[in-house]
Structure formats: C-alpha cells, structure tokens
C-alpha cells in the first residue's frame, strides 16, 4: 500500500506529519491492506489565516484493486481530528464494500 500525503499551502507538511499519518493509516487500514494499492491524503485549511469552526479538511482517496477509487471527506477544528474522522468513514465504507463482495 502506497501512501501519498498532499497538504495545502496553509498546512505544514513536514516529516513529522508525514510519519504520523503513515503510521496511523497503516495501523487503521491494516485489515484492508491486501486490497488497497494506494492511499492519497489531502489536507487543507479552507479559511487560510482566518479562524473558523471546522475549517480543516481531510479528503482520503483509496484505490482498491479491480474497483473504482473511493473517497471520503471530513471537516474539523484540527487536522488531526479531520484525519481521524476521515479514516473512520473510510473504514466503514471499506467494510461495507467488503461485506457486499462476500455476499456475491
């Protein structure tokens, strides 16, 4: 599973953030890692320098073998919360897809 991190100009995309995201994504999606070929994470601050509620956005796109890519989005007050929420949404969606495949 390849993990690619993309950050907007107002999110510091340093090594520490990239390392944290790699660890948490691999841990949270380990059950699905055989079927996922690539994960793309897009982090952005939608209000730039202004303060605002739920202005951090995390969009995670998963590329699954022999299927169309799927994507989820989450907004929160911090990038960390947005990432965690998006990962939970992605896991739920992957479990739904996996369940449907087992039924056929």
CATH superfamily: Ribosome hibernation promotion factor-like
DSSP strand (E) fraction?
25-35%
> What gyration radius follows from the Cα positions, in whole Å?
14 Å
The number of helical segments is 2
Can you give the helix content as a percent range? Answer: 25-40%
Distance between the termini: 26 Å
Please identify, by name, the CATH architecture. 2-Layer Sandwich
Briefly characterize the structure.
The chain has 104 residues and is of the alpha+beta class.
Topology (elements, then pairings):
Layout: E1 2-7, H1 15-28, E2 36-45, E3 56-64, E4 70-76, H2 79-103
Parallel strand pairs: 1-2
Antiparallel strand pairs: 2-3, 3-4
Give a description of the structure.
Helices cover 38% and strands 31% of the residues. The chain is an alpha+beta fold and 104 residues long. It has a single domain (2-102), classed as Double Stranded RNA Binding Domain (2-Layer Sandwich). The chain has a four-stranded mixed sheet. The model has no long low-confidence stretch (mean pLDDT 88). It comes from Polaribacter filamentus.
List keywords for this structure.
104 residues; Double Stranded RNA Binding Domain; 2 helices; 4 strands; 31% strand; globular; RHF-like; RHF/RaiA; Ribosomal subunit interface protein
């Amino acid at each position: 599973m390849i993990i690619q991190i993309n950050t907007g100009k107002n999110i510091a995309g340093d090594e520490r953030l990239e390392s944290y995201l790699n660890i948490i994504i691999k841990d949270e999606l380990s059950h699905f890692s055989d079927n996922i070929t690539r994960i793309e994470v897009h982090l952005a601050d939608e209000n730039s320098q202004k303060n605002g509620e739920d202005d951090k956005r995390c969009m995670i796109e998963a590329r699954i073998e022999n299927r169309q890519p799927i994507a989820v989005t989450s907004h929160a007050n911090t990038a960390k919360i947005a990432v965690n929420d998006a990962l939970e949404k992605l896991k739920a969606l992957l479990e739904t897809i996996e369940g449907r495949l087992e039924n056929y």
